[in-house]
Amino acid sequence: MKKVLILGVNGFIGHHLSKRILETTDWHVYGMDMNTDRITDLLENESYKSRMHFFEGDITINKEWVEYHVKKCDVILPLVAIATPSTYVKAPLRVFELDFEANLPIVRSAAKYGKHLVFPSTSEVYGMCHDEEFDPENSELICGPINKPRWIYSNAKQLMDRVIWGYGMEGLNFTLFRPFNWIGAGLDSIHTPKEGSSRVVTQFFGHIVRGENISLVDGGHQKRAFTDIDDGIDALMKIIDNKNGAATGKIYNIGNPVNNYSIRELANMMLELAPKYPEYADGAAKVQIVETTSGAYYGAGYQDVQNRVPKITNTCEELGWKPTTTMADALKKIFDAYRSQVAEAQKLMD
């Protein structure tokens, strides 16, 4: 029976991971977050109450609670981070303060108490790497100039990876995982109409629900390898289980190279799927695809990556894992999940 500490338990990965742990294992989840909207059903489920331990708090404030629970638990997942591109451009210091500075004491506590640290790196650390597949062991990490603040997220995460690796050289049991565009229900709020505030799938879905135009930045030719959240959680569960220590000291890309599509293709796929649902058909009929520039959409400090495909050889071989969800099925699951919330999102236009 493991005790798993999830900081940011109400977040996209946090709430999906907690649900899987409670449904499929006898492990205990100790979670902290500032909100509970995504985990309400877990907190209210009578059969989970003995194993779901929640504290409403902030990692930057409730530092004693965090350290006590790092000491108490077996596996530590610090999932609190800013991961929206518009924030990288408009508030880079906030990104550094939360994603690096606030997480550093947690890393140090994991090292101090000899815990298994499972830390979320990011596909963004590869930056504008020129490799056809991004290799966690060999690919160069290439970022743009200082006057493009979008790279502060990539740099903060990369520095944390290097710090964690350094602690690993001194005995820390760690695993770094790099999610490649994980998508699914609960990624962001579909009720947020402000452009650039959420990740691309949620952004497009919100526009479809509300009957708004979809903006393609710089033609939408950038490609991303999209990964269904359930496939990602499958890999995370194997990392946390860490059978025979297989995941210790490793860096894993967790992505689906088969689901590599341009943002324009994504928009078209979603617009083709929406009319098949009576709840979305009216909104989708009003949507037009328009083009904009990255400067107009995100701000002058933005710079994009044209292709981002993960090499997952070591992830598959060492964890006994492989992604199985097609892009069509991943999108269908999102459309299915929000059918009951359409009216709420549309009210925002009133």
TrEMBL record:
UniProt-listed Gene3D superfamilies: NAD(P)-binding Rossmann-like Domain (3.40.50.720)
Keywords: NAD
Keyword NAD appears in the UniProt entry: yes
Keyword NAD appears in the UniProt entry: yes
Domain NAD-dependent epimerase/dehydratase, chain residue ranges per copy: 4-255
InterPro entries, sorted: Arna-like_SDR_e (IPR045869), Epimerase_deHydtase (IPR001509), Lipid_A_modif_metabolic_enz (IPR050177), NAD(P)-bd_dom_sf (IPR036291)
CDD domains associated with the record: Arna_like_SDR_e
UniProt lineage: Bacteria, Pseudomonadati, Pseudomonadota, Betaproteobacteria, Burkholderiales
Designated name of the protein: Nucleoside-diphosphate-sugar epimerase
One Gene Ontology molecular-function label: carboxy-lyase activity
